[in-house]
Every structure is written in structure tokens, then in C-alpha cells.
Specification:
The protein is α/β, with parallel strands linked by helices. It has 14 helices and 14 strands. The strands form four sheets. It has a five-stranded parallel β-sheet, with helices on both faces. A four-stranded mixed β-sheet has the order 2-1-10-11, covered by helices on one side. A three-stranded antiparallel β-sheet has the order 12-14-13. The relative contact order is 0.15.
């Protein structure tokens, strides 16, 4: 994750689907991805599918942290994309969700005032799916109420009560379960997430998509039968939705080995990003653990649609749709590995968005700023180095002595480096 990348390499490294083992994905996810014609579209449809499906997995939860807080499947995602970047394919996931909505209303219009948004969420007992692929539709709404939307969405992401008190009365949504997929420009994204210190930044999954090639062969020749895929997948999800609704709340869980692996992963890979990007990125890293579990749980539910077994214990092959047991559903290794890889890439996307927000960019989708110079310098240093080595590398890269000494101190404070002797240091990451 931390190799020295130039701009083009970094953008390629942001691709998600290209790094997944397609054979390990649930059949429904594979079918949705097959609708894409470019790597960018693959990533868009993957995240749109996961976001939409997260609204179709009711009553399934996992517990996290020392307090055992319950988390449900609901993902909130913003696809930051320019025109002609292929973001329109996200609407295929909306068509998938419409199948469930026809029988069990769940869709919330993006073109809603804050009051209408609350009303729709209340009418659906705090549950719903907000999907908007045209950024211009939400721009005017957010100009007046972005901050209020920000607060409501931030609370919903953590299933925290959303209260409001007005002259005409008060109301409270005790346990909101809102899923969301938005696509738009950088300006629209920044209206909702104005700063890296804003609490919603770490809760909103952000995917940065650059423009695709101006000409695409799909306009000449298209695969037959593609339009049927969202409805086929939607009907499978409908069966899962009904089963979970009728069964009441059920617990899903990572295995002990997977939990241990996730903890180690946070400590190593993610800890390095915190050290390089600063403390403001800390919450995004910590909350990615919850997002990884959510994604794995969604994959479990989507795998069950076709009757695929997912329990790692062969003697107890629990399924959501058929043959269920009273025990907690367990995550299979394939789904955990897929979710971990997606989480790795999403964290890089969020790091890219972090640097964009932290800058003064005004473009629709600004160029991702080159990897922070601290990271470049850090990578060039040997595993063990001296104060003189540090000064020499700083001089080679045109960084002042005072600046590089401050960086070195922050690396020590963040656990990336340890001081072994006077003027002697060793990398720990």
C-alpha cells in the first residue's frame, strides 16, 4: 500500500474490482459487475450494488467494540466523479432495489427538503434507501441545508437517534437504518463534507472516479440481456429481504480468526496511513473496520440468495433463505477476504478525498494531489537510519531541516519509527 507512487500509478492503484478474485464473489455481485464496460464502471457498479443491497438486509446485525454496539448492514457512499466517467451505471443498482420497493417501500427521493426527508424516514420506521445519480438535483437543496443533512446522515450512519423539535411538534427516529448512494462533483461532495475534521467524513465511504476514455465500444455493440440482470438479482434479494423480515433480528459474526486478522490489519496497514496523513485521518481508519464488517455481512446475505452455503463450519451450514439454525450466522473466509480488499481500496480512495478537501481545488473532480512528500521521504529512508541520513535525504528532496525534523518526531509519536540511540532511528512499519 505504501510504495512510492506517481500520480498515474496512484489512480490505477485506486481501482477496486481489478484487485478482487471474481470467482469468490457471490453470483449476484458478479452479474451486476458484468454490466460494466470499463474499470471505472466496474468500481461504480460494485459500490452501488453494495450500497443498494445494504438497504435490503433488514434485521441482520453484528456487535462491535467493548460495549457490543449493534451495527446493521447500511452503507452510505458518495461516488465523486466527473461527466462521462460512467457514473450513470449506478442506476442499475437502483433498478435492483426497485424490485423490493414495489412490495416493501424503501426508496427516499434525493430531491427532498430536509423536512420531507425526515417525514419519509419516519414513515418507513427509520429505514430506507436514498439514491441520486444526478448531482445537480441535490445541489440546490444542499445549498440551504447541507449542514443539517450532514448531521442527520452522520447520526444515521451510526444508528444514533435523530431528533427534531419544531413548532408543529417533535419527533424522534430511535434506530435509523439508512443506506445511500450519491454521485456528484467535488463541489457537491464538499458541500456535504466541508472539512476533514467534519465527523461525517469518516462515516461516508468516498470513491474517487476519474473520466473514462471519450469513446466506448459499448455504443456500437452491447451484450444482449443486460437489462434483465438488475431485476433477476432484485428478485433474489427480495426473497432474502422477506426471510429476514419474518425471522426477526439475527446476529451475524466474523469468526474468531477473522476478527484477529482484522485487528492485526488495522494495526499494521492502517496504522501507517494514520502516521503519514495525520491525526485527522484516524477516525476514518478506525471506522473502516465497521465498514469492512458491513460489506462482509452484505456479501453473506447476497451469497445466500442462490442457496450458496457460507458457514465455515461444514457441520453447520447455516443459510439465510433455507435450512437456517438458531445460531449466529458466520462469515466465510471468501467474503471476509473480499471485504478486507474492498476496505483497503476504499481507504486509499478516502485518503485521496482527504487530500482534495484539505487543498484549494475547485475543479469538478480535482487532480489527486501527489502522495504527500512526507510519504515519499519516509519511503526513501532505510529501515535503520541516522539523523545525518535524514538530513541528507531531506536536502536531496528540497525539504528544510526543521520540517523534516518535525516529520521525524511525528513518525515517532505515531509509532512508525522508534529511537534506538542518540541520533539513531529504526522503522517499525
Amino acid at each position: 500500500m505504501l510504495k512510492n507512487l506517481n500520480l498515474t500509478e496512484e489512480q490505477e492503484n485506486l481501482r477496486i474490482v481489478e484487485h478482487l478474485d471474481m470467482h469468490k464473489l457471490p453470483e449476484s455481485v458478479q452479474q451486476m459487475i458484468s454490466l460494466a464496460s470499463t474499470p471505472e464502471e466496474q468500481d461504480i457498479i460494485l459500490m452501488a450494488t453494495l450500497a443498494a443491497a445494504s438497504a435490503c438486509v433488514p434485521n441482520l446485525y453484528f456487535t462491535y467494540g467493548p460495549t457490543g454496539k449493534k451495527y446493521y448492514a447500511n452503507l452510505q457512499c458518495f461516488i465523486l466523479a466527473a461527466a462521462a466517467s460512467g457514473k450513470g451505471i449506478a442506476n442499475q443498482a437502483l433498478e435492483m432495489a426497485r424490485v423490493i420497493d414495489e412490495q416493501y417501500p424503501m426508496l427516499i427521493a434525493g430531491d427532498s427538503t430536509l423536512a420531507a426527508f425526515y417525514k419519509a424516514l419516519e414513515a418507513q420506521d427509520g429505514c430506507g434507501y436514498l439514491h441520486e445519480s444526478e448531482g445537480s438535483v441535490i445541489t440546490d437543496i444542499w445549498k440551504a441545508g447541507a449542514a443539517n443533512y450532514n448531521t442527520a446522515l452522520r447520526k444515521a450512519a451510526e444508528h444514533e437517534p435523530i431528533s427534531r423539535n419544531r413548532v408543529k411538534g417533535s419527533s424522534e427516529i430511535k434506530n435509523p437504518k439508512l443506506s445511500m448512494l450519491l454521485t456528484g462533483t467535488f463541489g457537491q461532495y464538499k458541500a456535504l463534507v466541508p472539512s476533514v475534521e467534519n465527523g461525517y467524513f469518516s462515516r461516508l465511504l468516498t470513491v474517487v472516479i476519474k473520466g473514462t476514455n471519450p469513446f466506448d465500444k459499448r455504443y456500437v455493440s452491447a451484450k444482449g440481456g443486460q437489462s434483465a440482470v438488475p431485476k433477476i438479482v432484485g428478485n433474489r434479494l427480495l426473497r432474502t429481504y422477506e426471510t429476514l423480515m419474518n425471522a426477526g433480528e439475527r446476529e451475524w459474526s466474523l469468526t474468531d480468526a477473522q476478527k484477529e486478522r482484522l485487528g492485526e490489519h488495522l494495526e499494521t496497514e492502517y496504522g501507517t496511513l494514520i502516521g503519514l496523513l495525520g491525526d485527522n485521518f484516524h477516525s476514518a481508519v478506525i471506522r473502516m473496520a465497521v465498514q469492512i464488517e458491513r460489506i462482509a455481512m452484505i456479501l453473506t446475505a447476497m451469497r445466500s440468495e442462490s442457496g450458496e452455503s457460507y458457514s465455515p463450519e461444514t457441520e453447520e451450514r447455516s443459510r439465510i433463505v433455507s435450512g437456517t439454525t438458531n445460531k449466529a450466522f458466520l462469515c466465510c473466509d471468501e467474503d471476509y477476504e473480499t471485504a478486507e480488499m474492498i476496505g483497503n481500496k476504499l481507504l486509499l480512495h478516502m485518503a485521496a478525498a482527504y487530500r482534495m478537501i484539505d487543498g484549494d481545488a475547485q475543479d469538478v473532480v480535482p487532480e489527486i494531489k501527489p502522495i504527500d512528500q512526507r510519504k515519499v521521504l519516509f519511503e526513501q529512508l532505510k529501515g535503520e537510519y541516522s539523523h545525518g541520513d535524514l538530513a541528507e535525504e531531506a536536502k536531496r528532496q528540497g525539504v528544510s531541516k526543521r520540517t523534516v525534523e518535525r516529520w521525524n518526531l511525528s513518525w515517532i509519536e505515531n509509532g512508525l519509527v522508534e529511537k534506538t540511540n542518540h541520533g539513531q532511528y529504526r522503522k517499525t512499519a
